[in-house]
Fold this sequence. Notes:
Blueprint: H1 8-17, H2 19-39, E1 44-52, H3 60-63, H4 78-88, H5 91-100, H6 103-106, H7 114-127, E2 128-132, E3 137-144, H8 147-205, H9 230-264, E4 272-276, H10 289-321
Antiparallel strand pairs: 1-3, 1-4, 2-3
Amino acid sequence: MAAPSFDLIDVISVLRTKIKFILSISILTSLVGMCFFLIKPKKYKAESRFLVNNPLYGDRNNIFRSYETRYVDYFGGDDDLDKVTALATSDTVRDRVIRNCQFQVVYNMDINDAKGHAGLMGIYGRNFNLKRSEYKDMEISYTAYDPVVAANVANMSVKVLEETYRHYYTAAKENIITSISEKLQQVDSAIAVLTDSLASMRDHYGIYAILSPNRTAIGAAEMKSNGKGYGRAIEEIQNIEATKDQLVGDRAHYVSNLNEFGAAKNDAMQYLKVITRAVPPVSPTGPSLNTTVAVALLCGLFFSSIFVLLMAYYKLIISQER
């Protein structure tokens, strides 16, 4: 048996017949959407924008370079932005942010409990967002029910991210400073021992002239014999003096390097530059009341029309079979 005909004219006829029902359902759904919008807790989204500085610009090789001057861009490249993105989503940054912002008080959860800590980390991850634009600036946003909390978390996220990103570079410099400082102490001890030895030998043999290891620089007047053992004394003093001179030069180089690395790791050098600080938003995020009511009205209109057409077609099939 052929299927019953149900063309466009039949569709329009059914819709005109059931127009009151369709409008009633549409108005009802719009009222439900309005109530949902009014009852639903409002969420607020705070945003902070910043630029990533080039970490090489504050490196000692650029600050104290006296040769082969090269241009170093102030702004970080794509690789630097990728590092910032990786750090922003790391557990290290998340944990510091939720502790600094007192998430356990805001969301009433125990941060010292494993499940509570995991829950707070999940809340932060769901409401946190980081994106970058084509202008190489980055934007951090956080969504919360309290606008002040949203702004505080967004600003704290930028602060913690900057500290973590800066520590990524300064930690290596601090390790170098520690290594050089330990070596400097060893050199100081060796210089002190050599100084005591030279002083004793000069007093013992009565040799107070500066004996350069470069023998061509020693005058003949300084090579007069002063008894047995005088020649050996000169040789020993020259050997010790050469070693001491080298250590003194090394010590000066170590001190210079310490000053350079110390300047390069100074906290005054910021690796992220905030260009828009997050402030408590005045309006909630998400669709407005008019948008919510309009969407609910259209949904009610669409589904009620589909329901009416399906019921009419079903009745048509039943009546034809009978």
